[in-house]
Amino acid sequence: MLTFIEPYWAHILFVLSLILGAAAAIHAAMTKEEVRSAIGWVGIIILSPIIGASLYFIAGINRMRRSAISSRRFLLEHVRDHFETYDATDEMVMERFGERFAAMKTLGDRVTEHGITTGNTIAMLTTGDDAYRAMLKAIEGASRSILLETYIFDRDRIGRRFAEALVGAVKRGVTVRVLIDAVGARYSVPSVLGMLRDGGVTVDVFNGNVIMGLRLPYANLRTHRKILIIDGCEAFTGGINIREGFSGEFLGADRAIDTHFRVTGPVVADLFAIAAADWRFTTGEDLQSGSWQVIAPEDEPGSGVAIRVVASGPDRSVETNHKMLMGAFSVARTSIRITSPYFLPDRELITALITAARRGVEVDIVVPEANNLTLVDRAMAAQFDQLLKNYCRIWRAPGAFNHSKLMAIDSRWAFVGSSNLDPRSLRLNFEVDLEVLDVSFAEALERRMDLAISSSTQVTLEGLQDRPFASRLLDRVLWLGSPYL
């Protein structure tokens, strides 16, 4: 057989390159919504036969086709109507927050899968130790079910503490499911998966296999979500992964800073629907009955905090977070405050921020002085001048690395969760954020950011331009690769 094929190997390779190249180029042209992305990939495919097509099938396909679970479908018939009474009306939002935020509600209703609900509570957990303490207490107090989805779950001192709590819950008869991203599960060796499985915890990895590798053709797609649901009535979400790097108890002043949130109310049902859909996509198991029943809220409809869960990801909810941010920047009148560890917005978001600043809106962006990802930090610096030339202010916060993702608009509207302002979070990752319409909560976020600004160093055009040319050139080169960082 080999003897027969040997004289024709060049012909076979040529035909294979044509087939793979044509398939990849057609797929890129038909599925990419951004012309620059489509042109870039088609160019790579044409200029690098076979290799270009292979790279595209590994890293270029960034849309998953999967079904979703409705936030109402798993509810019992006798509580479904009760849940729907907590949906915020256009009139309520208009009366409390004005016409422009009523327009934001309309935008969210049209681009997200979940509505704004009332009757919620939200508590801000401002350190890793606070978040871990509250989450572990909730796990240890669970009586019925625990659903955990996270990007990173390290097998370090904090990770083992969580693993022991989850194993303890299983031994008490609690139904437990844990979903860890396939990339995030590799952050510690050995993985925590074995420890959880040995303890009887049902655990799986999202979009891959820790031993065999990532799931093709979606190897570049990850779940960056952090969701913990306890007994269908209490939830935690935000930016904190499960690892001791955020714990002052173990690392003292060297720990990273992050912000997490504890919520109750109808918003828990929507967070559960998102995590349950990810679990079903991974394992095929439906979590819609028995132990997984979501508990109906007891507070009066219209009370509490108005919150919407915003799920984004490379499926039918692609760029939902991007659309929400574009809308928020356009309705801002007085202030936009942003805290982000990785600030690499695309041209559309930069234009929206610049336009707001030119309208007289105070735009303040807080980024870490010392970043844990040097390449990302240098790419960030390469585009700071675009904002500084147009009335925006950028601040470098000293001290511990701040991994928080916080945004407040006009002391009325807030956006918090797992999304960074970078290409990966905005287009490639599965993310979950909370849109919060509440004066007290937005003001608390602003105070937190104002405190950071008070001790920060302001970035200036002069300071950027005074840096050596070679350093500035390297920043721009890294910036060119920012869509892939």
TrEMBL record:
Membrane topology reported for the UniProt record: Multi-pass membrane protein
Domain of life (superkingdom): Bacteria
Key word Thylakoid present: no
Matching SUPFAM superfamilies: Phospholipase D/nuclease
Alphabetized SMART domains for the sequence: PLDc (SM00155)
Record bears the keyword Transferase: yes
Sequence ranges assigned to domain PLD phosphodiesterase in this UniProt record: 219-246, 398-425
GO biological process, one term: cardiolipin biosynthetic process
UniProt keywords, alphabetically: Cell membrane, Lipid biosynthesis, Lipid metabolism, Membrane, Phospholipid biosynthesis, Phospholipid metabolism, Repeat, Secreted, Transferase, Transmembrane, Transmembrane helix
EC number: 2.7.8.-
Compartments (UniProt record): Cell membrane; Secreted
Membrane-spanning ranges: 38-59
Any Gene Ontology CC annotation: plasma membrane
PROSITE patterns: PLD
Example GO molecular function: cardiolipin synthase activity
EC class: transferase
Predominant subcellular localization, coarse grouping: membrane
UniProt-listed PANTHER family: CARDIOLIPIN SYNTHASE, PHOSPHOLIPASE D
Protein function: Could be a virulence factor.
Protein name from the UniProt record: Cardiolipin synthase
Species name: Pseudorhizobium pelagicum
